[in-house]
Amino acid sequence: MKTYTLDQFVALETEVWEALVSGDVEADGRLLADEFLGVYSSGFAGRAEHAEQLQAGPVVKCYEFSEARIQVLSEGIVLLSYKAEFIRHKKDGAGAKEAIFVTSIWQSSSGSWQNVFSQDTKAD
Q: For residues 118 and 34, is the Cβ–Cβ distance under 8 A?
């Protein structure tokens, strides 16, 4: 079995968050699989819904990860869990700091990694 590193998957997840900071719809779409499923407090979202939030521009002002860990589910499928603290980007100024626990599943396909699943849980 191949060796996977925590840094490798934190870097992939960082690319997704950087797309949220920059409002980069193309990067967001490239990183999410066609069959992507997001599970959020607002409900379920597919790849199109995830990218749709960026149509008006950035949605996150800044973020920070902690407590990251990976679990290899099988060859080419890795689960990443971490705590994210972030501030939403709002047109009328920055929002308050929020914290969530995130679990993402990354799958390797044709030599590249894509996010196939992500679930956010509000941190107390």
A: no
Domains in the chain and their CATH numbers? 6-122 (3.10.450.50)
pTM, to two decimals = 0.93
Model confidence band, residue 13 (pLDDT cutoffs 50, 70, 90): very high
Residue 90, pLDDT > 90, answer no
- pLDDT category at 92 given cuts 50, 70, 90 is confident
Classify strands 32-40 and 112-122 as parallel, antiparallel or unpaired. parallel
Tell which residue, 25, 64, 67, has the closest CA to residue 47.
25
User: In sequence order, which residues have a C-beta less than 8 Å from that of residue 85 and are 6 or more positions away?
Assistant: 63, 64, 66, 97, 98, 99
DSSP letters spanning the chain: -----HHHHHHHHHHHHHHHHHT-HHHHHHHEEEEEEEEETTEEE-HHHHHHTTTTS--EEEEEEEEEEEEEEETTEEEEEEEEEEEE--TTS---EEEEEEEEEEEEETTEEEEEEEEEEE--
